[in-house]
Write a structure and sequence with these properties.
Layout lengths: L11 E12 L2 E6 L12 E8 L2 E12 L2 E6 L15 E5 L13 H4 L3 E4 L4 E10 L4 E5 L4 E4 L5 E5 L4 E4 L9
Parallel strand pairs: 7-12
Antiparallel strand pairs: 1-2, 1-6, 2-5, 3-4, 3-6, 4-5, 7-8, 8-9, 9-10, 11-12
Length: 175
């Protein structure tokens, strides 16, 4: 497969966030994926939003220190100010993402869905997702409702229809 800096007409997923410049070309990276193995020397990522002529970053070195990921990029030596790539995302084409099991969804597929109860009451739109060790929590209308993403509560997810249906358990919709 040929590498290209041209962004074909496909969807991209953010897999990391460039948090801080640590000096000597090292950047502290926040992972937005469970696939840490994708961050290896030579791997290319698209930069989002694109930064002038810099549209891709290629990993030069990887280190893990105190459980945190640090990367150096080949392209950072060409930056007058390495800080310019801070607060940017590293993205991959959706076609490179791991295949999900039935009933699993990408965060970007869930955010924006309309949330309804089993009896048809519209609760609002899912505006963000909190990842916890136990389960994800869907924020409906910026936190008006907090819906745990567990089988007892989530009854239907219809991505193409833009809706999710939840079972209203006692206390679930009370603030």
């Amino acid at each position: 497969m040929k590498s290209s800096t041209k962004r074909e007409s496909c969807r991209y997923l953010s897999v990391a966030y460039i948090r801080r410049h640590e000096g000597h070309g090292w950047f502290l990276i926040d992972l937005l994926t469970e696939e840490a193995e994708r961050f290896k020397v030579g791997k290319k990522f698209f930069v989002a939003p694109p930064l002038f002529a810099l549209k891709e970053l290629t990993i030069k070195e990887v280190k893990i220190k105190s459980g945190r990921l640090y990367l150096r990029f080949f392209e950072s030596k060409n930056l007058v100010k390495p800080e310019l790539i801070l607060k940017h995302y590293l993205q991959i084409p959706e076609s490179e993402a791991k295949r999900l099991e039935p009933g699993e969804y990408w965060i970007h597929e869930i955010i924006g869905l309309d949330c309804f109860t089993l009896d048809g009451k519209h609760l609002g739109k899912i505006t963000s997702i909190l990842k916890t060790k136990a389960n994800d929590v869907f924020f409906v209308d910026e936190g008006k409702y907090l819906i745990p993403a567990v089988k007892e509560v989530i009854k239907e997810v219809k991505i193409k229809e833009g809706r999710i249906v939840v079972k209203e358990l006692p206390g679930l919709l009370e603030l």
